[in-house]
């Protein structure tokens, strides 16, 4: 998403953060294979892992889950209905994705699996950016 915002000249218009539902990778950089896949698409994959906190629902307008298991776990952290309504599966923004589709986990795969995840994320985030422009005047 950061890449698309920067490409559109909107990097200061939207705050983007990444967090996992588990804390066991906290402080670590992204997987080297994910960084390499990003580079193949001209996307810098950077940052440090952190664990999602219930308070994050108050910080963000959208909370995006990569898969249904994380969607359910995040839903359990939502303090109320308003927070729960901020939660979406990432692929739900891509009209070409099947309903309820998850982003596949490439961890046990090869470079092509990581590339496919980058393609999926770029597609969904492109549609999300269009929604942000339409609904929030960005």
User: How many strand segments?
Assistant: 2
| Proportion of residues in β-strands | under 5%
What kind of sheet is the major sheet? 2 strands, parallel
Mass-distribution shape: globular
CATH class: Alpha Beta
Number of alpha- plus pi-helical segments: 6
Write out the CATH superfamily name. Response regulator
Q: What strand line-up does the widest sheet have?
A: 1-2
**Helical content band:** 40-55%
Distance between the termini: 14 Å
CATH topology: Rossmann fold
How many domains? The number is 1
What is the typical, i.e. mean, pLDDT? 96
Radius of gyration using CA atoms only: 15 Å
Query: SSE order, as H and E?
Result: HHHEHHEH
User: What is the annotated CATH architecture?
Assistant: 3-Layer(aba) Sandwich
Q: Catalogue the unreliable spans.
A: none
């Amino acid at each position: 998403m950061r890449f698309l915002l920067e490409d559109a000249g909107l990097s200061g218009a939207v705050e983007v953060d990444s967090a996992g539902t588990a804390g066991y990778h906290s402080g670590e950089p992204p997987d080297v294979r994910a960084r390499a896949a990003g580079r193949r698409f001209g996307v810098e994959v950077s940052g440090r892992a952190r664990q999602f906190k219930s308070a994050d629902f108050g910080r963000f307008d959208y909370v995006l889950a990569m898969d249904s298991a994380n969607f359910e776990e995040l839903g359990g952290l939502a303090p109320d209905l308003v927070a729960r309504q901020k939660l979406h599966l990432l692929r739900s923004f891509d009209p070409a994705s099947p309903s309820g589709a998850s982003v596949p986990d490439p961890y046990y795969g090869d470079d092509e699996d990581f590339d496919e995840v980058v393609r999926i994320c770029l597609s969904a985030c492109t549609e999300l950016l269009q929604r942000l422009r339409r609904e929030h005047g960005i």
